[in-house]
Amino acid sequence: MIIDWFDAGAKRFSDLTCIVDGGRQLSYREVLAMTRRIAHAILATAGERAKIGLYSPNCVPALVAALGIFRSGAVYVPLNARDAVEDNAWFLDFAECELLFVHSCFAAHVTRLRELAPPLRQIVCLDRDLPGAASLEQWSAAYPAAPVAVRRGSDEVAIIKSTGGTTGRPKGVLQTHRVLETMYRTIEECMPPRKPPVHLVVAPFTHAAGAIAYPLMAHGARHILFDRADPQRILDAIERDRVTYLFLPPTVIYRLLAHSDVRQRDLSSLEYFVYAAAPMSVEKLREALEVFGPVMAQCFGKAEAPMVCTFLSREEHLVGDDPRTVRRLASAGRRTAHTDVAVMDDEGRLLAPGERGEVVVRGDLVMAGYYKNPAASDEAGKYGWHHTGDIGFLDEDGYLYIVDRKRDMIISGGFNVYPSEIEQVLWSHAAVQDCAVIGVPDDDWGEAVKAVIELKPGMRASEAELMALCRERLGGVKAPKSIEFWDELPRSSVGKVLKRDIRARFWAGRERMV
Q1: What is the CATH number of the domain that holds 269?
Q2: Are 199 and 98 in a shared domain?
Q3: N or C: which end of the chain has fewer CB within 10 A?
Q4: Please, how many CA atoms are within 13 Å of residue 303, restricted to the half-sphere of its CB?
């Protein structure tokens, strides 16, 4: 079971600090007792195998509650704290959640959640009492801190994870204990700790940051929780707390690199600075290696095959000047030990190195299926492989290159145009903080290539300048036909640029296959 990773740490490092959130911190011994009480309370009030939601920003009681859910053997349903309340209520109803742990910052939504999610029988507030919702501490106080006898098999469902709903309503990914155990083993193998780690949790722990947190608990990690990605606070924490592990999406790394004093900070404690969730600019990756040192590491995965299908190690980032090794900075790394990775065409044929097709994976990291959606499960598992929806290719050395999402490909004048190739060129400009390339309606081309740019604070660039850069590097077909500058690009709760929201501004009243 997943909780075994925490219990291994609690046995070996009981007096070490486990979780820190502002002025509050808990030791492994304290967290062990709290999670046992929560597990007993879940079993007494919701019963075995209940589905339990968690709706909270990063904070101590939320992480303790998640561990309590795992200990009880219930099914954990994490929600995106930054999603609309209606979207989260829909997923609670869809997943048939009976119990919800909610943070008081969402107190105004409790009545609405009850209305929109009829299966909810009880709501517990993580950090204080609310009308009709006892605090987590009060709710669990009467239950013992005795061991919990529940055990779950490796093929039983541990988590129902939302796919995020990038093309309509989200699907519910069934992650079993086997899937998560495989992920945790792979993370340990790829990023082995040398001593009790210090893990700065900035991204939501309900997503990739949590995937790193749980296996590190077996090694006595201290987890410092932030509820938002503030570059100044992140740099202060690395320096002050001697952070060794950090995961961030590329867009937040760009903000760190643009911070005025990042090069004056002592960042030498970092051992693994992991980036994932979206493609990263090669130019900015080179800059990150200069600023943070030889600590960058990349992984590629999906909710359906989480986090570590491929891995680009710290050592593989040290490419020197050989063009054969330099190019791998644009890759997502090579397959990990427990997951097979290939590229497939639409007829189910595996493709040779250099040929583009859909990235497919198989192994114990792959989900059990989609909740209440057997047709989608069968479609995703065609030909015995899980289909990721990403277009890519493998090189002769086994490095995987993600070209783009299938739905993001632009067909302009009969040519297939992959936005990520154009975005790499735009990211290389000194004034560009972040960008998104999309197809917009065009009577002549069908779709015209358009770039939306977020500039670094205080810096300037013109449309003509950036279009000329793209034409020089890519030619006329792939170069954007127009460029807009926005103050800020829309992003998801895990930092991904939301291209669907950008497209919506240009496709209103028009149809596009996504």
Answers
A1: 3.40.50.12780
A2: no
A3: C
A4: 22
Q: How far is residue 8's CA from residue 322's CA, in Å, rounded to a whole number? A: 43
Domain with residue 433: its CATH number is: 3.30.300.30
pTM: 0.84
Same structural domain, 496 and 359: no
The domain boundary, picked from 349, 376, 405, lies at 405
Query: Containing domain of residue 473, as a range?
Result: 409-507
What's the angle, vertex CA 325, arms to CA 324 and CA 328, rounded to 5?
Answer: 105
Angle between helix axes 60-72 and 28-45 (nearest 10 degrees) is: 60
Instruction: Please report whether residue 168 resides in a domain.
Output: no
Number of domains observed in the structure of the chain: 3
Going residue by residue through the chain, which has 514 residues, state the pLDDT in tens, using 9 for 90 and above.
999 999 999 999 999 999 999 878 999 999 999 999 999 999 999 988 999 999 999 999 999 999 999 999 999 999 988 788 888 999 999 999 999 999 999 999 999 999 999 999 999 999 999 888 999 999 999 999 999 999 999 999 999 999 875 446 889 999 999 999 999 999 999 999 989 999 999 988 888 788 899 999 999 999 999 988 899 999 999 999 999 999 998 888 989 999 999 999 999 999 999 998 777 888 889 999 999 999 999 999 999 999 999 999 999 999 888 888 888 999 999 999 999 999 999 999 999 999 999 999 999 999 999 999 999 999 999 999 999 998 899 999 999 998 877 777 787 766 778 888 899 899 999 999 999 999 898 876 778 899 999 999 999 999 999 999 999 988 887 899 999 999 999 987 667 788 888 988 888 755 443 3
